[in-house]
Amino acid sequence: MLIEASILIDAPRDDVYDILTEYGEPVRLRINPSLKAQRVLERQGNVVLCENEWERDGRRIVQRRRYILHPPERIEEEVVGADSGLVRVITTLVPEGDQTRLTIVSDYQFRGPWRLLAGLLRSKLREADDELLATLKEGIEAEFEEIPEDE
Fold first, then answer.
1. Could you tell me the domains of the chain?
2. Exposed end of the chain (fewer CB within 10 Å): N or C?
3. What confidence category does residue 74 fall into, taking pLDDT thresholds of 50, 70 and 90?
Protein backbone atom coordinates (compact mmCIF):
# COMPACT_ATOMS: atom_id res chain seq x y z
CA MET A 1 0.00 0.00 0.00
CA LEU A 2 1.40 3.37 -1.03
CA ILE A 3 0.70 6.47 1.07
CA GLU A 4 1.60 9.89 -0.33
CA ALA A 5 1.95 13.07 1.70
CA SER A 6 3.31 16.48 0.75
CA ILE A 7 4.18 19.81 2.38
CA LEU A 8 5.65 23.14 1.29
CA ILE A 9 8.85 24.16 3.09
CA ASP A 10 10.01 27.77 3.19
CA ALA A 11 13.59 27.06 2.09
CA PRO A 12 15.39 26.46 -1.24
CA ARG A 13 15.45 22.88 -2.56
CA ASP A 14 19.23 22.45 -2.48
CA ASP A 15 19.35 23.54 1.17
CA VAL A 16 16.50 21.21 2.12
CA TYR A 17 18.23 18.34 0.32
CA ASP A 18 21.51 19.08 2.09
CA ILE A 19 19.85 19.03 5.52
CA LEU A 20 17.93 15.81 4.82
CA THR A 21 21.11 14.04 3.72
CA GLU A 22 23.39 15.05 6.62
CA TYR A 23 23.29 11.47 7.90
CA GLY A 24 24.83 10.93 11.31
CA GLU A 25 25.03 14.68 11.99
CA PRO A 26 23.29 16.61 14.80
CA VAL A 27 21.03 18.45 12.33
CA ARG A 28 19.23 15.15 11.58
CA LEU A 29 18.30 14.83 15.27
CA ARG A 30 17.22 18.47 15.48
CA ILE A 31 14.81 18.29 12.53
CA ASN A 32 13.17 15.04 13.70
CA PRO A 33 12.88 14.75 17.50
CA SER A 34 11.70 11.11 17.33
CA LEU A 35 15.10 10.19 15.82
CA LYS A 36 17.27 9.73 18.92
CA ALA A 37 20.48 8.49 17.29
CA GLN A 38 21.82 7.88 13.80
CA ARG A 39 25.10 6.22 12.99
CA VAL A 40 26.53 5.94 9.49
CA LEU A 41 27.68 2.34 9.00
CA GLU A 42 28.84 2.63 5.40
CA ARG A 43 29.09 5.15 2.55
CA GLN A 44 29.65 3.98 -0.99
CA GLY A 45 29.09 6.48 -3.79
CA ASN A 46 25.51 7.68 -3.55
CA VAL A 47 24.48 4.94 -1.07
CA VAL A 48 24.51 5.47 2.70
CA LEU A 49 23.72 2.73 5.23
CA CYS A 50 22.68 3.97 8.69
CA GLU A 51 21.58 2.49 11.96
CA ASN A 52 18.74 4.61 13.30
CA GLU A 53 17.27 4.65 16.78
CA TRP A 54 13.72 6.01 17.01
CA GLU A 55 11.44 6.65 19.93
CA ARG A 56 7.75 6.16 19.19
CA ASP A 57 4.97 5.88 21.74
CA GLY A 58 7.53 5.42 24.52
CA ARG A 59 9.27 2.54 22.70
CA ARG A 60 12.78 2.49 21.24
CA ILE A 61 13.08 1.08 17.74
CA VAL A 62 16.46 0.32 16.19
CA GLN A 63 16.63 -0.39 12.48
CA ARG A 64 18.99 -0.09 9.56
CA ARG A 65 18.06 2.00 6.59
CA ARG A 66 19.76 2.27 3.22
CA TYR A 67 19.53 5.66 1.52
CA ILE A 68 20.14 5.99 -2.21
CA LEU A 69 20.75 9.63 -3.10
CA HIS A 70 19.80 11.32 -6.36
CA PRO A 71 20.84 14.94 -5.74
CA PRO A 72 19.11 17.29 -5.42
CA GLU A 73 15.61 15.99 -6.05
CA ARG A 74 15.19 12.42 -4.80
CA ILE A 75 16.07 10.14 -1.88
CA GLU A 76 15.17 6.45 -1.90
CA GLU A 77 15.05 4.93 1.58
CA GLU A 78 14.81 1.21 2.27
CA VAL A 79 14.25 -0.43 5.65
CA VAL A 80 16.92 -3.15 5.55
CA GLY A 81 15.52 -6.64 6.03
CA ALA A 82 11.88 -5.53 6.26
CA ASP A 83 9.32 -7.61 4.39
CA SER A 84 6.29 -6.20 6.21
CA GLY A 85 5.22 -2.88 7.69
CA LEU A 86 7.08 0.12 6.30
CA VAL A 87 9.55 -1.19 3.73
CA ARG A 88 10.45 1.84 1.59
CA VAL A 89 10.09 5.64 1.43
CA ILE A 90 10.68 7.78 -1.65
CA THR A 91 11.28 11.48 -0.94
CA THR A 92 11.10 14.01 -3.76
CA LEU A 93 11.98 17.70 -3.60
CA VAL A 94 10.56 20.09 -6.17
CA PRO A 95 11.32 23.81 -6.17
CA GLU A 96 8.32 26.15 -6.03
CA GLY A 97 9.83 29.60 -6.31
CA ASP A 98 12.03 30.10 -3.24
CA GLN A 99 10.28 27.23 -1.47
CA THR A 100 10.41 23.45 -1.76
CA ARG A 101 7.60 20.94 -2.18
CA LEU A 102 8.65 17.92 -0.11
CA THR A 103 6.67 14.78 -0.97
CA ILE A 104 7.05 11.36 0.58
CA VAL A 105 5.59 8.12 -0.72
CA SER A 106 5.65 5.44 1.95
CA ASP A 107 5.39 1.82 0.87
CA TYR A 108 3.74 -0.45 3.45
CA GLN A 109 3.51 -4.21 3.00
CA PHE A 110 1.13 -6.20 5.18
CA ARG A 111 0.99 -9.94 5.74
CA GLY A 112 -1.51 -12.26 7.36
CA PRO A 113 -4.38 -10.68 9.29
CA TRP A 114 -2.81 -7.22 8.93
CA ARG A 115 -3.46 -7.47 5.21
CA LEU A 116 -7.20 -7.56 5.90
CA LEU A 117 -6.92 -4.47 8.09
CA ALA A 118 -4.81 -2.48 5.60
CA GLY A 119 -7.75 -0.42 4.38
CA LEU A 120 -8.60 0.60 7.94
CA LEU A 121 -4.97 1.50 8.63
CA ARG A 122 -4.65 3.76 5.56
CA SER A 123 -5.99 6.91 7.24
CA LYS A 124 -3.85 6.36 10.37
CA LEU A 125 -0.73 5.86 8.25
CA ARG A 126 -1.51 8.99 6.23
CA GLU A 127 -2.01 10.92 9.48
CA ALA A 128 1.39 9.72 10.75
CA ASP A 129 3.10 10.79 7.50
CA ASP A 130 1.39 14.22 7.65
CA GLU A 131 2.62 14.64 11.24
CA LEU A 132 6.15 13.64 10.22
CA LEU A 133 6.16 16.19 7.40
CA ALA A 134 4.89 18.95 9.71
CA THR A 135 7.71 18.11 12.16
CA LEU A 136 10.31 18.11 9.36
CA LYS A 137 9.00 21.42 8.00
CA GLU A 138 9.27 23.05 11.43
CA GLY A 139 12.74 21.62 12.03
CA ILE A 140 14.13 22.49 8.61
CA GLU A 141 12.74 26.03 8.65
CA ALA A 142 14.18 26.52 12.16
CA GLU A 143 17.64 25.78 10.72
CA PHE A 144 17.29 28.96 8.62
CA GLU A 145 15.98 31.31 11.31
CA GLU A 146 18.30 34.19 11.96
CA ILE A 147 19.56 34.62 15.48
CA PRO A 148 19.33 38.29 16.50
CA GLU A 149 22.66 39.83 17.41
CA ASP A 150 23.08 41.34 20.84
CA GLU A 151 23.44 45.08 20.67
1. 2-142 (3.30.530.20)
2. C
3. very high
Q: Alpha-carbon distance 78 to 48, whole Å?
A: 11
34-52 confidence digits (pLDDT tens): 999 999 999 999 999 999 9
